Amino acid sequence: MKMHQPTRPNKAFPGKSQLGSYSDSTLEMDYNIGRSMDVIRAVAPDTTIAVPPVPKTIQAH
């Protein structure tokens, strides 16, 4: 997952969004979260998955 270089997408993602490197990195992050959710669903298919929102105290301004 990207943390310190959010504008340098993996080599599979540059140009995918057609909106620049930040958007390409966002697509990469979304793809990786989707893969993680797929694994969780495969391991626990009958479980409700709740993803809590980020508290306002740690959101970027």
Automatic annotation (TrEMBL):
Region (Disordered): 1-22
Protein name as catalogued: Uncharacterized protein
